[in-house]
Amino acid sequence: MEVVAYIGLGSNMGEKKANLKVALELLGRVPGVKLLRVAPFYRTEPVGYTDQDWFVNTVAEVETTLSPRELLAACLEVENRLGRVRGVRWGPRVIDLDLLLYNGQVIDEPALVVPHPRMHERAFVLVPLADLAPDLVIPDRGGVRELLAGVDRQVVEQL
Ligand SMILES: Nc1ncnc2c1ncn2[C@@H]1O[C@H](COP(=O)(O)OP(=O)(O)OP(=O)(O)O)[C@@H](O)[C@H]1O
Ligand SMILES: Nc1nc2c(c(=O)[nH]1)N=C(CO)CN2
């Protein structure tokens, strides 16, 4: 069965925009994943651990025949290919791919939580997601547009 999923991408090390472009290119080449649309890129203030460089973030809409776990594994594979090394939690990264939404499903497993547990409070996710799907409802959280209206002020500037 083909389903639509949303993947959040972020980079705050090196050539940030180029990192996102390479990650999107690799993601689109994964068998069973078709890139449908990509939101504009945004320059965003770091959230969580704030003593780090600003990020570039975007969101991709994909159609996939992969299961949620397979799609997450594909995201982690793309991170590895871009040379991501895990350090400080919420700290600097060459690339980060988060599985935000998978066909409106709710998944609560040790290694996979969908909708992504922090997406609804992150302007760097909600702003690009709203570009693609303003009317989308995040299961158990609410509509993208409404969530965005209530989110804390975080600087998110379109590039
Ligand atoms: N929806 C999801 N998307 C991506 N990773 C997830 C998801 N749910 C659970 N995980 C798990 O979380 C791990 C990713 O942690 P990671 O280091 O990328 O977190 P982070 O990006 O620092 O923080 P955050 O999760 O707040 O964005 C993955 O190894 C994966 O198993
Ligand atoms: N602006 C911004 N801040 C973050 C980001 C991110 O992608 N963008 N990712 C984090 C960990 O997932 C923590 N903080």
Automatic annotation (TrEMBL):
PROSITE patterns: HPPK
Record's keyword annotation contains Kinase: yes
InterPro entries: Hppk (IPR000550), Hppk_sf (IPR035907)
Any one biological process term the GO annotation gives: tetrahydrofolate biosynthetic process
GO MF terms, alphabetically ordered: 2-amino-4-hydroxy-6-hydroxymethyldihydropteridine diphosphokinase activity; ATP binding; kinase activity
Reactions performed catalytically: 6-hydroxymethyl-7,8-dihydropterin + ATP = (7,8-dihydropterin-6-yl)methyl diphosphate + AMP + H(+)
Database matches in CDD domains: HPPK
Top-level taxon: Bacteria
Pfam families: HPPK (PF01288)
Its EC number(s): 2.7.6.3
Domain 7,8-dihydro-6-hydroxymethylpterin-pyrophosphokinase: 89-100
Pathway: Cofactor biosynthesis; tetrahydrofolate biosynthesis; 2-amino-4-hydroxy-6-hydroxymethyl-7,8-dihydropteridine diphosphate from 7,8-dihydroneopterin triphosphate: step 4/4
Keywords, alphabetical: ATP-binding, Folate biosynthesis, Kinase, Nucleotide-binding, Transferase
Name of the protein described by the UniProt record: 2-amino-4-hydroxy-6-hydroxymethyldihydropteridine diphosphokinase
Native source organism of the sequence: Desulfofundulus australicus DSM 11792
